[in-house]
Write a structure and sequence with these properties.
With about 625 residues, this protein is mainly beta. It folds into 4 domains: about 1-105, no CATH class; about 120-355, 3 Solenoid (Pectate Lyase C-like), CATH 2.160.20; about 365-545; about 550-620. The strands form 7 sheets. The protein has a 22-stranded mixed beta sheet that branches. About 50% of the residues are buried. Mean pLDDT is about 90; it is low at about 1-10, about 140-150 and about 540-545.
């Protein structure tokens, strides 16, 4: 199918009444002219007044010359079923409507046919764009299951001043422009409206609807459009408001919306849904760019199982990306790439199941990312420079729900945030972490583990070196169990603080403290040997090792019955975890034992002065 757009000038001056071309002026009656033009081309070369419902058959090719037009009376519909050609000038006027619905010859209509102009000046373009959409779409609800349209509405390059009416999408509406951000829809001052919304959005929101028969819209397309919300001159209004499913969006740019930049919602269940593929939920957003909304930039509450290729979010007045599920909506989604930065709230917030490949939260005033639902699954998380106000309230990444899965977590703390990564939910599985502070004298914590069943398979924490800074803090509130953590920690005021004892944890920690730094503080493992600690490290200031297990030799000298042994462990071992073995005949002594086990030493005692031969021992101790 092809739409041919004529130029602004024509050389047709004569009235044509035979051959392949028929002039409307030869009949001055649209029905008679259309009948005569069956199998031919009908030239509209003057104004045609349509005062009653009129249908031009599919056998008639309609060409509207510059200066020709249809003036349609109120309450009247002109239906055109054949091919239709016109230039980028107005060819429809009046308060009546035009229908190309079920036209199998036409693939594109233009708002300019209704008088629209993309001149960045003339207001009232929303109503004209809506007329173009209405002509190409069956706006009745429900849409018949076996019917759809392939006719698109194409916007010209330039700026349309809209806001007189919200541009309304219906089933299978295709609204697009060529190129990237070459076509702008700018909200007129004081319009206080949503720029683009699905039909019946307001009445459907929060109602947990899913089916076409309930008014839910599907199958529509937005592509290549820039929306300017003109926030400074509005009291309210989203950029885009969707209640629908199975839609397609590509290269959509939204800037300066007064409220939410992009909002999408749908019901929670497929139960009793539409027939076959029409009941499928999956929306597809290939690329979307959102900037400087007054509230959230991207607020997603469905349809569930949607997909996004690339999502860029900058300078939101609230959260950059907000993904939610609730009783009446379900926002599960797969977003391959997110870069959310400079937002007043959180860079990324989710309380709905979500997955992705590479998510970045950068330089936000709240948390870089916060996850409050189970089963978040992202290959790479990268967060840096969040909590920009330095309140020590927010984290670069906060995981407060269970069973999160991350392949790699990268954090660069640049301000006095509460911490780099906090695991407050249980059973997180993380392949590798790279946690680094680059701000001056960072006093927060690199990683906080305050839950159970978490796994970090490898990585490092370093440079939380300001007064009170901690590389790894475990169990600050809870007594965590079954954690399996493997980390290298260096250059922090305190490298590891175990604030409470847990049970059945496995800690494989390598510590490298600089001068004046504390390698370990807090509680060692439970005395019941339910935990496995494999900890080694080095204190530069004391030139001594710190570890979870150690061994050595000791000698009770001639003239004494005791020797104090420095065990070099992180904390006080249990008495039964200190083992000594004689390595000579003990001289005149016959018995020996261990006593006075403390944080740094234990004592070996024999029952008599061993004499000149002394009493020598090999010892082992572990936590």
């Amino acid at each position: 199918m092809e739409t041919r757009v004529f130029g602004t000038q024509t050389n047709f001056n004569d009235i044509i009444v035979d051959g392949p071309w028929i002039s409307y002026r030869a009949y001055d009656d649209i029905n008679a002219a259309a009948t005569a033009a069956a199998g031919k081309t009908l030239l509209i070369d003057s104004q045609v007044d349509i005062t009653a419902n009129t249908t031009i058959a599919a056998t008639v090719n309609v060409v509207v010359l510059n200066g020709g037009s249809f003036n349609i009376s109120g309450g009247v519909t002109l239906t055109i079923l054949g091919s239709f050609d016109a230039g980028m000038y107005q060819v429809f006027s009046g308060t009546g409507s035009v229908s190309f619905w079920n036209n199998t010859f036409l693939d594109v209509v233009y708002p300019e046919w209704w008088g629209a102009v993309a001149d960045n000046s003339t207001a009232g373009q929303g109503a004209l764009i809506n007329k173009a959409i209405a002509s190409s779409t069956n706006t009745s609800e429900p849409l018949p299951e076996n019917m759809y349209t392939q006719i698109s509405v194409k916007l010209a390059p330039g700026t349309y001043i809209v806001g007189d009416e919200t541009i309304t999408l219906y089933n299978h509406t295709n609204l697009f422009a060529d190129g990237f951000a070459m076509t702008k829809l700018k909200m007129a001052a004081n319009s206080d409206k949503v720029c683009i919304a699905t039909n019946d959005f307001v009445s459907l929101t929060g109602q947990n609807k899913w089916k076409r028969s309930e008014g839910v819209i599907d199958g529509f397309v937005l592509k290549g459009i820039l929306i300017d919300g003109n926030k400074a001159n509005q009291a309210s209004g989203n950029g885009v408001s969707i209640y629908g499913k199975r839609y397609f969006i590509e290269d959509l740019v939204i800037t300066d919306a007064k409220d939410v930049g992009f909002y999408s919602e749908a019901g929670t269940s497929l139960t009793g849904g539409d027939l076959h593929w029409q009941g499928m939920p999956e929306a597809i957003i290939k690329s979307i760019y959102i900037d400087d909304s007054g509230s959230h930039n991207f607020h997603y509450r469905g349809p569930h199982d949607g997909t996004v290729g690339k999502l860029f979010s900058k300078d939101a007045g609230a959260d950059g990306v907000r993904i939610e599920s609730g009783g009446a909506y379900k926002g599960t989604i797969d977003i391959s790439f997110i870069h959310s930065y400079g937002c007043v709230g959180n860079g990324i917030y989710s309380n709905a199941w979500a997955k992705g490949d590479y998510w970045i939260g950068e330089a936000n005033w709240g948390n870089g990312m916060i996850f409050e639902t189970n089963w978040i699954n992202v290959a790479v998380l990268e967060a840096y420079g969040n909590d920009r106000s330095g309140t020590s309230t927010y984290f670069d990444i906060l995981v407060s729900a269970n069973e999160a899965m991350f392949g790699q977590v990268q954090v660069n703390t640049q301000y006095a945030a509460a911490g780099g990564l906090k695991l407050a939910g249980s059973f997180a599985q993380i392949g590798e972490v790279h946690i680094l502070a680059t701000g001056t004298g960072i006093t927060s914590k690199g990683v906080i583990i305050d839950s159970s069943g978490n796994t970090i398979s490898g990585g490092y924490i370093k440079s939380y070196s300001g007064a009170g800074g901690i590389g790894l803090q475990t169990n600050p509130v809870t007594n965590g169990n079954y954690n399996d953590i493997n980390l290298h920690i260096s250059n922090c005021a305190t490298l590891w603080n175990n604030a409470k004892q847990g049970q059945r944890n496995r800690w494989k920690i390598r510590l490298n403290a600089a001068a004046g730094q504390t390698a370990f503080s807090g509680f060692g493992p439970q005395a019941d040997n339910s935990e496995h600690w494999e900890v080694t490290g080095y204190n530069t200031d004391t030139t001594s090792t710190v570890r979870s297990q150690n061994k050595g030799t000791a000698t009770v000298p001639n003239g004494s019955t005791t020797v104090n042994v420095t065990h070099g462990l992180l904390s006080t071992p249990a008495l039964e975890d200190v083992k000594i073995t004689p390595t000579n005949n003990l001289g005149t002594a016959t018995k020996f034992w261990v006593s006075a086990v403390a944080a740094t030493t234990f004592t070996i005692t024999v029952d008599a002065d061993p004499g000149a031969t002394t009493a020598t021992f090999a010892w082992q101790a572990h936590l």
